[in-house]
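Late entry, written up from scratch paper. The run itself happened at the end of the previous shift, but nothing got recorded in the book at the time, so transcribing now.
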Amino acid sequence: MCILVALALALAVAHSALLFAQAKPPTEYEIKAAFLYNFAKFVEWPSSAFKGPKQPLAICVIGRDPFGQALEDALSGKSIGDHPVSLAHSKDLGELAACQIVFVSTTESPRLLEILARLRGHGVLLVGEAEGFATAGGTIQFVLEQNRVRFAINPDAADRAGLKISSKLLALALIVHDAGPNGEAKR
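Output as recorded:
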């Protein structure tokens, strides 16, 4: 009997080890998708950003979507306060003002200044990953440091959009400011 219990325990441990070995760490874009959702928890939008108290909080992607299924999976069935979270993809700049969060794909880098100008003054959290995104006027920029996803926040851009970012989120970020006239970022 003791041998059977020991054998069953050994099989259970081996099975657990096999399952653990098969578990994959999250991909870069799974992590970024989770960040996008969690950013919304630490940002306060102006009342003008929503047409009604239960209007969905729209997370929009402009340009090529690098997330694949990861963003849809991260947002499925989620809410922020009374706002259910929705996901949209767009190529039309005119549609972006209806979004609360806009992820600007690196494929949109040539149009970045146009996108920033179009959304200036709207209550939109602009998130991107292109080099210099935040210092150009984006609100949050994903940065890879030592193969880890980090982020930089530009409080100047948040102020222009009427967004209040929690001090808890700011404490985790690299703080950058708009680039000066010579193109250098102020920190």
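The two ends are 69 Å apart (CA to CA).
(Scratch paper discarded after transcription.)
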